[in-house]
Write a structure and sequence with these properties.
The protein is mostly helical and 421 residues long. Helix content is 79%, strand content 0%.
């Protein structure tokens, strides 16, 4: 890979430590995806309470994003990565120690801080280390930690729970899952602690330009950042709905289908597209591929609405995985293009905060509307509409006017908001 060959040896070493820590972090997080909703039900939670507890994860994200973004910019990217890994190690034990739905919601909210911290620090540090001309490529490759972790984590979670039932006397299997999640978080912390962080690139020259120094509230008024934030908000609503209700939907259908396989198929699809999408976006622009990603989300939710067989769920997983594999790294690259180095932590906090808010509201709102929507099929049908709205907004609002927005979304125009053209 050309982008890797041009890097210095010390930079390569940092990226290897960072990638491995990221992989373990995402395994820690996704170990719980197929098991936590059913664990909440075992603890006495209703469908609506499952949605509320799962959504509480994003409360921690939303409450900490702004502060953590400032810490990443003013103190250290590494520090917020370590905070994220530490919370990921502590939270799983909390699930075992509480014995009420309220307690689970509180631990879930605390757990949300982990992703807020880790993703801000991880994304900002990757951009710092990536040469401008290879930014999309390296972001795409470094974000492979997410789909690989998501392919291993859910499958491992289901396996560990089954093993726990067999080998832990009078156990439900959840104990083994939570302890394994904790161990992965600890290992991620230890690896991240080995990264030697250097000064922010471009910071000295940029800090001399007072007009380039924007605070958080100034960033919220930048149209180049608001549209990606709204897109991530809508996609977050879709993702939050998927995480909260997919296991329960499959259970209701009484299918002989391991929900962990859905997440594994999602991760494989996400991994596959990330192998080439970053490099392609460096060459052809971000807009065309972001549009394609939103189409993938629409297809995925439509397939879930119609799904009655395991193969339909696998096809939906592939579409959702392709959408996520394209959208997340390219939106990160897009907002990196539209921001300065010394404000990038806050920019990621703002834009990814939209995704967090969507996750927070997804399970809660759509779970509350489940009776009106006619059950899980209606929930996923509404999720498909939300993905369609995201596509319409991007195609019409991504540029400075309708014509340029359309051309940018089709890959026929440059990004007018990019600061490094």
């Amino acid at each position: 890979m050309k982008a890797w060959k041009v890097l210095e040896k010390t930079t390569k070493q940092k990226l290897i430590y960072l990638f491995t820590a990221g992989l373990l972090f995402w395994i820690s997080i996704t170990l719980l995806l197929p098991t936590l909703p059913t664990y909440i039900q075992v603890m006495g939670g209703t469908v609506q309470q499952v949605g509320i507890v799962m959504s509480c994860f994003a409360i921690g994200l939303l409450g900490s994003r702004t502060w953590l973004g400032k810490v990443a910019d003013r103190r250290s990217r590494k520090l917020v990565i370590l905070i994220g890994a530490l919370v990921a190690a502590i939270a799983p034990i909390g699930y075992l120690l509480v014995n009420s739905i309220v307690g689970l919601a509180e631990i879930r909210a605390f757990h949300g801080i982990s992703i807020a911290a880790f993703t801000i620090g991880y994304s900002a540090l990757v951009v710092d280390l990536a040469p401008l001309q290879h930014r999309g490529t390296l972001i795409g490759y470094m974000n492979l930690a997410v789909p690989i972790g998501m392919s291993v984590g859910p499958a491992m979670g289901g396996f560990l729970q089954a093993s726990g039932k067999l080998f832990v006397r009078d156990g439900t299997g959840y104990e083994v899952v939570f302890i394994s999640s904790m161990i992965c978080g600890i290992l991620a912390f230890l690896l991240a602690s080995q990264i030697k962080e250097s000064a922010l690139p471009e910071a000295e020259s940029q800090q001399k330009l007072s007009n380039s120094r924007r605070d958080f509230w100034q960033l919220t008024k930048d149209p180049g950042l608001i549209v990606p934030t709204i897109i991530l908000l809508l996609v977050g609503l879709v993702f939050g709905t998927l995480v909260a209700f997919l296991p329960l939907y499959i259970k209701e259908l009484e299918l002989d289908f391991n929900v962990g396989l859905f997440y594994t198929a999602t991760a494989i699809a996400s991994f596959s597209v990330r192998l080439f999408i970053g490099q392609a976006s460096d060459r052809y622009g971000r807009g065309l591929f972001i549009s394609g990603a939103l189409v993938c989300y629409i297809v995925s939710m439509v397939l879930l609405t119609l799904a009655q067989t395991p193969i339909m769920f696998i096809l939906a997983a592939i579409a959702e995985g392709a959408g996520a594999g394209i959208l997340i790294p390219l939106v990160l690259a897009l907002i990196a293009d539209r921001s300065y180095a010394q404000e990038r932590g806050q920019v990621f906090a703002l834009c990814m905060g939209g995704f967090d808010l969507g996750i927070a509201l997804g399970g809660f709102i759509l779970g509350s509307l489940s009776f009106v929507l006619g059950g899980y099929q209606g929930i996923f049908a509404l999720a498909a509409i939300l993905a369609l709205v995201a596509l319409v907004i991007f195609v019409t609002q991504a540029g400075k006017n309708l014509r340029h927005s359309l051309y940018f979304a089709l890959g026929k125009a440059q990004d007018v908001y990019a600061l490094n053209k």
